[in-house]
From TrEMBL:
Domain DUF1722: residue ranges: 201-317
Pfam families: 2-thiour_desulf, DUF1722
Entries under InterPro entries matching the protein: 2-thiour_desulf (IPR007553), DUF1722 (IPR013560), UCP037004 (IPR017087)
Protein name: YbgA family protein
Amino acid sequence: MQTTKKIRIGISSCLLGNPVRFDGGHKKDQWLVNTLGEYVDYVPVCPEVEMGLPIPREALRLVGNPDNPRLVTNKTYQDYTTQMKEFSARRTKELEQENLCGFVFKRSSPSSGMERVKVYKDVPPEDAKKSGPPSLNGIGVFARTFMTHFPLLPVEEEGRLGDANLRENFIERIFVMQRWRAMLEQPFSLRNLVEFHTNHKLLIMSHSITHYRSMGKLVAHAKQIEPQELLQQYQTELLTALKLKATVKKHTNVLQHIAGYFKNDLSSDEKKELQEIIEQYHSELVPLIVPLTLCNHYVRKYDKQYLSSQWYLNPHPVELKLRNHV
């Protein structure tokens, strides 16, 4: 069962419909607010307003070296780089107390974009129109600080969440992160860690067979490791594995693994049907939800306790319809 407690997620404030953009507008994202919002508590952040800039205000841009750009106003070239870096360091530190399970950034924002933000040549304002097109190699100043401070925390941009695979991966990760944090809130118990790992085995396998094996070894030798070090190592392995994208090939491998649990239960026709549907998925003729629905049916029909506890089969609420499109 998923915990009924909502997941805490950081988010660029304008995506919730808050009128905090430079022109006094917003960029409300209906899916984030109305659909995902049923399952999460958002912690809004607007770096520019929280830093002290007014609404409305002159728009900002990144200029100079994409690896360490300056943050300046579009027309007057007023420099807010130091102010934004100091705010970002302070705000990121404060967000440690929020126990966030992820963050959704605003695409293209010079403060909050997580990738492909425009970076202009650092030239005098009077020459700005002659400086040529910007590069798309930038990262927003606040987003860079946040992602450096929380390197393994699930992060995405609202624009990238339009991609079905990226959306499913992000939502899967924040639900795993919620379950992990819930386990950490309890007094340390090796039994709890083993149970957590056991229930996430197939899900981890769908992202990285290498991490699946190394994490199995880590848990097998858990008694030889000091608890805090053990938890830190496991968390690093877990979140690193889940950052790797699940693919059709990886999912097919897991589905075949699941099918093996029914070799003594299914009739020849049932085995043939299951293999045909897995092959249809592998050929990208049907979405992942199709073979998973049949697998879940057999889990219930043949009372497979081990599989019934696998989060891979039900990683997030079905109402989100995430696996209908991957």
